[in-house]
What does this fold into?
Amino acid sequence: MNLSTRPEPYIIPSYSLTGDLLSYLNCGRQYRYHNRGALPPSKPVQLWFGEFIHGVMEEAYRRWNEQRTPLPWDEATLENLEDMIIQRLAARGLFYSQPSVLDLSRKRARVMIKEIGPDLFPMIDSAEVRLQGIRTMPSLNGAVARANYYEVKGVVDVLSSLRFSGIDPKNRLWQTIMSTPTIQQMPANPHIRGGSEFEVILDYKGMRRPPRLNLDRFEWQIQTYAWLRDQQPNAHKVLAGILIFVNELVPSRTDMEALWDEVYGSNGITTDVPPTGRDANILAGWRKSQGQFPSLSFDYRLRRALHIVPVTPDSVNHALSQFDQVVSEIESSVCREKSGQSIPRSWKAVPKPENCTVCDFKYFCDKSESQGPPLAP
It folds into this structure.
């Protein structure tokens, strides 16, 4: 009598837009240890700050929506809200590293609520929208893929459902969207001009605005969100995405040094939003050796904080092809490691100071730009 055997489970690999796409592009080897190796960072400062900003903005919108208390709120109300989020994060095992980090995080959160909130909250249709879809597995350069498909998933921070006729023309977010050349041509589209609803995707980034060459990976994320949203029933056309780089609203000294390098460094201007006028003069006259760092105008800081991503069929297709390429690289690395190759030979590293300085694996990584003996606990 022959007994049948249970077939091996067919598992479709799952990839998230932030946890996989952006993490892998940041450094493939670090991604291998943190994401696939389930080794959490010992000092998750960036994780705490990102969770703090998301939590504060979500709770602020909930209170505004339920109580309809007009903005701006007083300092006591904002501090109470912030303390609640800090306690929630602590219950999850997430803590800020030092008082200076907490102080700067509070300042950025309050500017977000005071300056962005009045324009953002009336536009919100829903928050924390989960999206997922399936794509065909790309070729792996000769390796055999684990599955014929892979899952794409992500969480949209804010989704707005709007009509042109129902938007306050004084809304600064809307003005920023409509000042984008590609979007200025879109109202001629009969679908939009006819009064149909459309959607805007908004995503918070707990970081400074990256150099021009690194902006595209965040744009791919928005474009892929738009593709995933289009797969859902009752979805409307996505007109654009808005990226908010929160650090730009209240820059730190490190942020200002990075901006100076992007404007006056040896590589020339590498930022897409350089300062002009008085802001340019202030930054040009500052030296990193000075104790105080300059305070730039809020209008300039807001322009650096906001990045509009127009959504078109061509831009969506390009972003999906880039996502497929990242998945192909990750899956190829998985196959190399499964075949017996070492992690350093299987996963590429991206050595640069901002990656290596905070990396827990720099002491044994042959590509690290921050090597040295580990410090005693």
